[in-house]
Amino acid sequence: MHRRQLLKFLSLAALGAAIPQGLMAQEAEAPPKRLIVILLRGGLDPLSVMPPLGDAAYYRLRPSVALPPPGNADGALPLDSGFGLHPALEPLMEFWTGGSLALITACGLADPIRTHAEAQKAVESGQPQERYHRDGWMGRLLPLLGPKAQALSLASHVPLILMGRQAAKNINPSGHPFPAWKPERPDVFPALDALYTGVDPLGRTYRQSQVLLRNKLVDLEREIRLSSGDAPSVHAFSSLAANIAPYLDKEPLTRLVFLGLGGIDAHFGQGAGKGGLAEALYSFSRGLAVLAKSLGPKLADTTVLVLTEFGRSVAENDYGGTDNGHGGMAMVLGGGVKGGKVFGRWPGLGSEALSDGKDLAVTTDFREIIASLCMAQFSLPREGLAQVLPGYTSTGSLGAMFA
Fold first, then answer.
1. Which of 392, 399, 386, 325 is nearest to 361 (CA)?
2. pLDDT score for 202
């Protein structure tokens, strides 16, 4: 060894001895990889979030809730592959054009489950074929991230998705009650009430129909409230999202975060570019943007996954809304995402392609999204993946979604 090289080696050795070993180890470690999961409880309508602009059946089956094409008032924002984006989601376009946001179409449970509570359990457990659920896929993932890895849920209680061998910390987001999307009779009906007051057959028939309508509205309001699963409203997302990054600063061992949001169950008065669903989507998009920006540099090492338990019916119902369906959609946001693209195979809305003749079909099992994410974000081997998603074998169809 030359004298100059020897002196350089001794200097570096002395410098290393002067630095505390714990600090050296901390600096040598890569930033922790994190996963934040947002579950939109209530069944998000995929055909409103990302309308298939070139599918004639979309406009035929949705005369009042279909979004106008791009360039029209309240029209969809243009994406790729013939899809648009709801104009209320415009705050997400910077992430789409920046390549950090990807959308997945026609995904969900392989077999239809149209009851909110049961479908949510299937998604949270990651084992839709099981009838009784004791733990969730995030709860099974947590121990694989290390004995010191922590998880956080923002819910009234620890949700199924985070139940497992390693306990998760739960913070009840108090002060954010769920405001039900309250179905109300259209404004025209009070005038009709005054018109049809007689005892003639037409008057009696009208009043009977109004009793049935009011009962239906009560049932819809009850289902909308139950579908939220006691989750805070999507309209509270911005304020909740702003607290996640500061929490991660204080608790750097937190690797998994879960938040459920309600208020998207659109059985009545859904609207198109404007209306109840548009308001919910705007609150969601603004909250997701707040979350991404508040994470700052941490977003490069964080993946945000947005799921819902199922989609909505392709055809609108008699109340200007959509009912519980099958195929849905998902979003993936983060530094390791190859975004600006729609992933998944679009099955079409022709009658022969629909699930049970009425709903968007599923061409991508929701577990494939989880599997691809776990392998890309946490370098999880297939043995570990088998623990997170027992009984599921990844197809690798979404591998191109991650850098």
1. 325
2. 78
